[in-house]
Structure formats: structure tokens, C-alpha cells
Design a protein that fits this description.
heterodimer; A: 488 residues; alpha+beta; 18 strands; 45% helix; 20% strand; elongated; B: 309 residues; Rossmann fold; four-stranded antiparallel sheet; 10 helices; 32% helix; globular
Chain lengths: 488, 309
């Protein structure tokens, strides 16, 4: 028999019993849609975590800082490290050499005060020193102006985060015009990239109180805004401005010296940087203290607060982290957090998956049932075909193809149906303001259907159809032709 | 007469061991109706079977050779002996009738000739090939190539039109749809169903359905056509029509026709009649001289007789 004829016979049978074929296909539709929806929720949840975490920080980034000490697991006592691996330029080179590392930047922070045109100011500007040349690598998104590059090394050119302009307020008017975090989609109060004069200082009361003329003059250092970043998803809460790391250190030194002189202090070390306490591994890491000493076996000293390493692939992050920890540093990353979140919801996701699989299984049984019924009904027909010389393989083929048609049709319609269901799930989740497992339904979809899931579902549905049709098809070929034509 | 009567259970081992394959020249040299035996030989049941089977024409080539065929059905502890040692030879182009009462084993014999059932003992050889030993796969191919079937209950596929039903054996042997539709149409016209080609079986009378059945059996020009009570469900007039159609078609194409019936009037169309009683061939009747011809006066007489009642 020709292949086209086998197909025609199978298709004819499928179309002949319309009601039954439709019901069986419906079973497959529900099965397919159930699998797709359940998996899409799992995928959506993971994607939601990722979005969420990405809005706080890039999941490919690893923060590296010194390891101050560890907590003894038996005694619970804090044990300070005698010597610590320092954060310096050699470290930078070492980190760059690790496989899978895309870019590395040192970081030094200085909390300062920023003045615009001598009229407005922003207290609490977190001036972050980075490697100006690698800013582009870290995937910062620019809104106006440009990112920092090599030409900005050694200058006081800086880039603001989107939130920063909302933090400036009138110095003397008493009326705080801008003084809040930006919400998503909010317009900038002004474009900061322009012909403005920006200055940095340490004096938090600058411009608002009376000036003590007996004290030394308060120093102002000029800077130039070359760009502003695009707003982060879900709103912006940071007050960061980015500048070349060496310039920030220089700025810090200058302002610190002025501050000390103003208060008539000596060269006491003042502590800067961030302390991170990680309960899970009982480690304390932190930044350097300016002027303080960092002990180390060699003469090397930490010159940066911390270092940020960018991995090429999010999957490699934890691998790279481990290597850095072996070098004697403390690390943390969003990825770590993400894996923890994903680990926690693994059970839920596997239950969702299991529900889908059960639905599919029921659909498979329904196909098998339909095909077996069809054989009972067509016993005579099959017998006649056999007597007339129809090959067994062709009879088997007819049944398998009919089952495959049921599976495929159900698969296609099921995938289409699942898009509708997915939209409904997302609408309901969004409407209810549901935030599931820390996923904000407003920003992330609860159900996400990637293309591969559609294709996989289609293939699966067809394969299940064929598999379910296998037993009936073999049964059909085993039928005794004689018995079949005898029964009236 | 001695040289005319030959038995197939001949003790000489060389004979009938292997039935030669048929070829065209053989067919030409074996005229069908040319039979030397004269008249009816009414054999009694006591007579040994061997003597009843004869090969009147030495040059005729055997199509079907059956030897010592026994079929025993076992139902639970009971054993039913449906066939108890059948020997027969059907030559190419011969029209043969298996005649007997209900339960005598006619259908069982036919089914075994067609390879639809396996014998308990004995052999069935068609064109030199052992049907009883063939796998289902090979049998399907063999049937496709060599056999056509006409059934008592027509056995048309209810969801297909006449054209599709007739074209079905061709579809199974891989003939393109266009070609087979064309041939099916020709065949249906030949059977007088030119106006019923797109009808489904339920939209046709029994006689029309059987004519579709005949068209289906002959469409692939098989060498052998088996018909089990082909007129069992038809009235006398239609019976005669159907019989004449089958007989003339198989004559025309030199086809072997094996008909099973319990009706002596149908048997009258055959060249040779095998009387079967309780699973054995009780006698063989050479019918060539008493035979009803297609469209003959006798046929008309039978119809008149039947319809006058
Ligand atoms: N599948 C079977 N199982 C058991 N016994 C069977 C089977 N087929 C036939 N028989 C028996 O074999 C014997 C011959 O049956 P068969 O069908 O050949 O008769 P028949 O001559 O064709 O009769 P009819 O004219 O009624 O069709 C019967 O006694 C029947 O009961
Ligand atoms: Mg019978």
C-alpha cells in the first residue's frame, strides 16, 4: 500500500467517528494544556525570581571582599583571621585570569554630599568607584549621555543612577522639591546631563546652616556628569553615582583630610566599606578601612573596598565563587540567593509537573481506549482487509497513524489552548495583586511559555498518541481474518 | 477410459510432488472446455475417492493441489472433524463447485484453499507454493497477487463508496488512486453499476452489493477467485445474473473459479462438481456436457420456474 493511502485510510477513520474523535482529542488537549500550563508556572516562577533578583543586581555578578574571620562551628566563637588576602591590583589580575570571567572591576565607595549649581544638593550620594574602562562590560544601561570609558580614568566624570535626580532638593528654600525614590515609569525631574556645575563635599549641612568662620574652609571638589542610567525594573532605590575608582579614592582622601582638619582631628583611621554577615557559612567579610592596615603575609595591602567579578554565564557563577573563596576571599552573589529560592520552590514545581504528567497519562489512556473500541467496531472491516490482501504492516500503520493524528491534533489545539489559559492565569495573578514566593505579579508573569515548551509538548503529544496506539495496532494485526468476516 | 482416469494419490513419487508454475504458453495449450470425458459420472459414496478424481486433460496445469487434507476443530474436549482427508486438483481456468449440505465442510475447505485457515493435516499447494506453510505476511502478498473473493454476505466496507470498495485490493497492492479509480469504474460499468458508482453499500440492494463484490474480486485480475455461497442471499433471477457474470468474467480472463454452494442449480454452471458429505468428497461430477451456458435457455427456464411460484 502507498503511504498516502495508509494516511488516507487513517484520516478517513479519524473523520468518520467525529464525536468520538473529538472527545479523544479533547482529552489530549486537556492533557497537553495541563502539562504546558503547569510547566509554564514553574518556568514563570524561576523567571520571576531571576527578574526580581536582576532588579537588585545582575545575577552574573559576584561581589568579592576580604575574609575577616570565621565563626567556629563548635564553639560559636568568632575567630579573626590572622592574615587576610588583600584586595589590590594583583588580585584584580588573578580574578581576571579565572576561566569564565567576563570582566572585573574594583570598587571603593564614599558616602558624600553632592551639590548642583550651588542651589540644590543631594545628601547621601554613594559615590562608587569602578574601573571606568569596564563599565560597558557590566551591562549598565544608559538613558542619556554615555557610560564611563577609558577616557574618564583619572577624571571626576561620573554617571548617575536614574534615582539620583529625585534626591536633589533646594538648599535654602526649605521646600523639598525632589526627595523620594522614583517609582517605575516616573519621569525625571530634570536631565542631569547638561551644563550644570556639580560639586562634592563631606559636609552634610552644607548650605543650610550658618558657616563657622573660625574653622577651616570646607572643601568642594568639582565633578562632571556625563550620563544617567536607565531606570531599573520595578523602581529604583539606590543613590549611586559611578566614577573612576582612583578618582574616588583621591576624592575621598581629599575630603577626608579636609574633614579632619575642620574638626582638628589627627590621622585616625576611619572605617569605611560594607560588612556582610553570612549566617549560612558563618563568615564575616567586609571592606577596608581607609588608613587602617590590612595584615597580610606579604607587603600587599588592600586598596579597594571590594571587587566585582562578572561571569560570562550565570550557570558558572557558583563555580567561580568557589574558586575565589579558595583564594581566601569572601564572596556573595544574587545567584546564590536565586538558587536558594529555586531550591525552595523545587518541590512545588515538581508537584505542578506531576499534575501535568498525570493529566497527560489520562489522555494517553483515553487514546488507547478509543483505538481499542475502534478495533472492536471495525473487527469485520479489518478482517475483510486482511482477506483482500492488505499487509499487516499497513493495517498497523493505519492504526498508528490514526492515533498519531489524534495526538498531534490534540497537541496543536492544546498548545493554543494553553496560551489562553496562561494569559488567564497571568491576568488573575496580576489582578489579585498576587505576589507569589516573592514574585511581583505586576512585573513578572506567573506563567511563561517558551517556544521549546510548545515544540516539546507537540512532539510529546504525538509520541504519546503513537505509543497509546501501539497496543491496539498490534491487536488489530493479530485479529483472525476468518473470525472477523464470519461474525455478522 | 483407463488412460483418462488418473489419480492424484498416485504412488509414483515424481508426480504432483511439485506443481509447476503456470505460464502463458501453458494456458494457451490447455483449452478449457475441451474435455474428453463424456456425460455424467454419478459416483457412489463407497467408491474410493482416488477413482473419482480424474484429470481429463493431461496438458491442463494444476492451479490448486490439495492432498490428504484433514481439519479437526477442537472445542473444549469435543473434536469436530470438519474435513476428513480431501484430495483434489483444480486446474487453471477451471470452474469448480463444492456442493454439499450445511455443515458438510465446504466453507472449511474453501478457507483452507485460500490460506485463511491452517489444516490439521495435509497440504494445500497453489502454483507450487505451500499455502499452509506460508507466514501471514507472505500470505497477504500472495492473496494480493493471486486471489479474489466473493462472500455470501458481500462484505463490502460500509463507509466506502462502490468505487473505493472495488479499488481496495488495488490500493493494497500499491496502485495509484487515479489508476485504480479508473479501473474500478470500468469494472463497475461491466457489472452494470454505472449509475451506482458513488453509492455506499447501505444505499444499494443485495444484488447490487454483490455485483460490487464481484467487481472487487475481479478488478485485480487474480488467477483464482473464491466464492462462498455468493448467491445465498439473492433471489433466483439475481442469482442467475450474478452467476453468469462471474462465470463469463472468469472464462474471459482464463481465471480459476471455486464456488461453494448447496444449490444444484448454481452447481450446474461449473465444469466440475465435487459432492462433499461429512468432510469427504463423495463423488466428482464432470459437468462440461450438462453445463448451463451463460445466457442459455436453461437459465431462463430456471428463472421462469422460480418466478411462477
Ligand atoms: N471455527 C470452527 N470451530 C469449530 N467448528 C467449526 C468451525 N468452523 C466450522 N466448524 C465445524 O465444521 C463443520 C463444517 O463447517 P463448514 O462451515 O465448513 O460447513 P459448510 O459446509 O460451509 O456449511 P454451510 O453450508 O452451512 O455454510 C461444521 O460441523 C462446523 O460446525
Ligand atoms: Mg459455509
Amino acid at each position: 500500500m502507498r503511504k498516502t493511502d495508509v494516511l488516507r485510510f487513517a484520516g478517513g477513520n479519524f473523520l468518520r467517528r467525529k464525536a468520538r474523535s473529538a472527545l479523544t482529542v479533547l482529552g489530549v488537549i486537556i492533557g497537553t494544556a495541563a502539562v504546558v500550563i503547569m510547566l509554564s508556572i514553574g518556568i514563570g516562577m524561576n523567571k520571576g525570581f531571576e527578574d526580581q533578583i536582576n532588579s537588585y543586581g545582575n545575577i552574573k555578578e559576584i561581589n568579592v571582599c576580604e575574609r575577616y574571620g570565621t565563626i567556629n562551628e563548635e564553639t560559636g566563637e568568632w575567630e579573626q583571621n590572622e592574615s587576610r588576602a588583600p584586595l589590590d591590583d594583583i588580585t584584580l589580575a588573578d580574578l581576571r585570569a579565572i576561566e569564565g570571567v567576563e570582566a572585573v572591576t574594583p570598587k571603593s565607595q564614599y558616602w558624600g554630599v553632592m551639590i548642583k549649581d550651588n542651589k540644590e544638593k543631594a545628601s547621601n550620594a554613594q559615590i562608587v568607584g569602578i574601573d571606568a574602562a569596564s563599565m560597558e562590560d557590566f551591562g549598565y544601561e544608559i538613558l542619556y549621555g554615555r557610560l564611563l570609558n577609558e577616557s574618564d580614568i583619572g577624571t571626576n566624570n561620573f554617571v548617575m543612577c536614574f534615582n539620583m535626580p529625585f534626591y536633589f532638593y533646594e538648599m535654602r528654600g526649605g521646600e523639598e522639591v525632589y526627595w523620594h525614590d522614583s517609582v517605575e515609569g516616573e519621569e525625571l525631574p530634570f536631565n542631569p546631563v547638561g551644563d550644570y556645575r556639580y560639586q562634592f563635599t563631606w559636609y552634610w549641612n552644607y548650605g543650610t546652616g550658618a558657616v563657622d568662620t573660625t574653622r577651616p574652609r570646607i572643601k568642594l571638589v568639582d565633578g562632571k556628569c556625563v550620563g544617567i542610567l536607565a531606570q531599573k525594573k520595578g523602581g529604583d532605590y539606590s543613590q549611586e553615582i559611578y566614577m573612576d575608582v582612583k578618582s574616588v579614592q583621591e576624592l575621598q582622601k581629599t575630603l577626608q583630610a579636609n574633614q579632619d582638619k575642620y574638626y582638628g582631628r589627627g590621622d585616625e583611621p576611619s572605617y569605611g566599606g560594607v560588612v556582610v554577615i553570612k549566617s549560612d557559612r558563618a563568615v564575616i567579610g567586609g571592606g577596608i578601612s581607609i588608613g587602617g592596615s590590612t595584615t597580610s603575609d606579604t607587603d600587599r595591602k588592600s586598596i579597594y573596598d571590594n571587587i566585582t567579578v562578572l561571569a560570562k554565564d550565570p550557570k558558572k557563577v557558583q563555580d567561580i565563587e568557589k574558586q575565589i573563596q579558595e583564594m581566601g576571599y569572601e564572596t556573595n552573589s544574587s545567584m546564590e540567593w536565586l538558587t536558594q529560592l529555586q531550591e525552595q520552590t523545587k518541590f512545588l514545581r515538581s508537584i505542578l509537573g506531576a499534575i501535568g504528567v498525570v493529566a497527560f497519562f489520562v489522555a494517553a489512556i483515553s487514546i488507547a481506549n478509543t483505538m481499542v473500541m475502534s478495533i472492536y467496531e471495525r473487527t469485520r472491516e479489518i478482517g475483510i482487509m486482511k482477506v483482500l490482501g492488505c499487509k499487516l504492516s499497513d493495517i498497523r500503520g493505519m492504526f498508528l497513524i490514526e492515533a498519531a493524528i489524534i495526538g498531534f491534533t490534540g497537541g496543536v489545539l492544546g498548545v493554543i489552548f494553553s496560551y489562553g489559559m496562561s494569559a488567564l492565569v497571568n491576568m488573575l495573578a496580576g489582578k489579585g495583586g498576587m505576589s507569589m514566593m516573592g514574585i511581583d505579579a505586576a512585573t513578572s508573569n506567573l506563567s511563561v511559555i517558551p517556544l521549546w515548551l510548545d515544540i516539546a509538548a507537540l512532539i510529546l503529544a504525538t509520541a504519546v498518541g503513537v505509543l497509546a496506539g501501539l497496543y491496539p495496532a498490534i491487536r488489530a494485526t493479530r485479529l483472525s481474518a476468518l473470525e472477523a468476516i464470519k461474525n455478522e | 477410459m483407463a488412460e483418462e482416469v488418473k489419480t492424484f494419490t498416485d504412488s509414483s513419487p515424481a508426480k504432483n510432488k511439485e506443481a509447476p508454475m503456470l505460464n502463458d504458453t501453458d494456458l494457451k495449450t490447455a483449452p478449457l472446455n475441451e474435455q474428453t470425458d463424456g456425460g455424467l459420472r454419478q459416483a457412489s459414496a463407497v467408491q474410493p475417492i482416488e477413482e473419482n478424481i480424474k484429470d481429463p486433460n493431461v496438458s491442463a496445469k494444476p492451479a490448486i493441489v490439495i492432498k490428504d487434507l484433514v481439519k479437526i476443530f477442537t472445542i473444549g474436549k469435543e473434536k469436530v472433524r470438519a474435513l476428513a482427508g480431501i484430495n483434489l486438483v483444480v486446474n487453471q481456468g477451471e470452474i469448480v463447485c463444492l456442493l454439499g449440505t450445511s455443515g458438510s465442510g465446504k466453507s472449511t475447505l474453501l478457507n483452507m484453499m485460500a490460506g485463511l485457515e491452517k489444516p490439521t493435516k495435509g497440504t494445500v499447494t497453489i502454483y507450487g507454493e505451500r499455502i499452509d506453510k506460508m507466514s501471514e505476511r507472505k500470505l497477504a502478498m500472495f492473496r494480493q497477487k493471486n486471489m479474489g473473493f466473493v462472500f455470501q454476505s458481500y462484505n463490502l466496507l460500509p463507509n466506502f463508496t462502490a468505487i473505493d470498495n472495488v479499488g481496495m485490493p488495488l490500493a493494497f497492492s500499491g496502485v495509484k488512486r487515479k489508476v485504480r479509480d479508473k479501473r474500478a469504474k470500468e469494472m463497475l460499468k461491466l457489472c452494470g453499476l454505472g449509475k451506482r458508482m458513488r453509492h455506499k453499500p447501505t444505499q444499494m440492494s443485495g444484488g447490487q452489493q454483490q455485483r460490487v463484490g464481484i467487481a472487487r474480486a475481479f478488478v485485480g485480475k487474480p488467477k483464482i477467485v473464491f466464492a462462498d455461497e455468493p448467491t445465498g442471499n439473492l433471489d433466483t433471477r439475481t442469482t442467475i445474473e450474478v452467476m453468469e457474470m462471474m462465470v463469463s468474467m472468469s472464462r474471459e480472463n482464463h481465471q480459476t473459479l471455486v464456488i461453494v454452494t448447496h444449490d444444484t442449480e448454481i452447481a450446474a454452471y461449473a465444469d466440475k462438481i465435487y459432492h462433499i458429505i461429512d468432510g469427504v468428497i463423495s463423488s466428482v461430477e464432470d459437468n462440461t456436457h450438462k453445463q448451463i451456458g451463460v445466457g442459455s435457455e436453461e437459465a431462463a427456464e430456471i428463472i421462469r420456474a422460480a418466478e411462477s411460484v
